[in-house]
Specification:
Helices cover 58% and strands 7% of the residues. By secondary structure, the protein is mainly alpha-helical. It has 2 domains: 127 residues, no CATH class; 49 residues, Arc Repressor Mutant, subunit A (Orthogonal Bundle).
Length: 189
């Protein structure tokens, strides 16, 4: 059977079905499986995982060479590594698009359709930091940019980067930049 110019008989399976209680799920990844679906099957999970498998296949098809997208995918990498990189990139995109929200791990695992251990490992391997350290860093970078380039008040900026308490925002900003938001703004005016 041919699937998007690939001979499906020579490719490792993209998805595997495994009992929810199985303790040998990690072995699937060693065999080249990109993801698994636990059974009993939850319909929404099945739809999501199949959609992600198609996304992965489309990404492989549209990439002309490894240099086209070196951060996302390199054709010479094993499938499990490619899947981990794709997951880390998706987590990053999700976090950046939710800078103003209270991001919880349970919401993140639901959005990514996988478990917290897989999320944490993929992200830390690819970005060298935890997901929430990355989120905090991105929030601080956006706050610094807003302080330099807008006239918005500090309270407004704090809310825009996900801090409900402006005092805690000032504390976090000072920890990140060794100066208060007000002083930072004055330095760049």
């Amino acid at each position: 059977m041919i699937f998007n110019n690939y001979n499906i008989n020579t490719l490792p399976p993209i998805l595997a079905f495994v009992d929810v209680g199985s303790r040998e799920k990690h072995q699937l990844f060693q065999k080249g499986v990109l993801d698994y679906i636990s059974y009993p099957i939850i319909e929404d999970e099945l739809k999501y995982r199949v959609q992600q498998a198609f996304f992965y296949d489309e990404l492989l098809q549209t990439q002309e060479s490894p240099q086209d997208s070196p951060q996302i995918l390199s054709i010479s990498q094993p499938p499990a590594v490619k899947a981990e990189i794709l997951l880390a990139e998706k987590i990053s995109e999700y976090l950046i698009s939710h800078l103003d929200k209270d991001v919880k791990l349970v919401d993140l695992t639901r959005a990514m359709g996988t478990n917290k251990n897989k999320l944490s490992k993929a992200f830390k391997t690819h970005f060298g930091m935890t997901m929430f350290n990355y989120l905090r860093e991105q929030r601080m970078l956006l706050a610094a940019e807003l302080l330099k380039n807008t006239s918005q008040g500090i309270v407004q900026i704090a809310l825009q980067v996900g801090f409900i308490d402006p005092n805690y925002f000032s504390y976090a900003f000072k920890c990140a930049f060794n100066m208060s938001p007000r002083r930072y703004r004055n330095v760049f005016i």
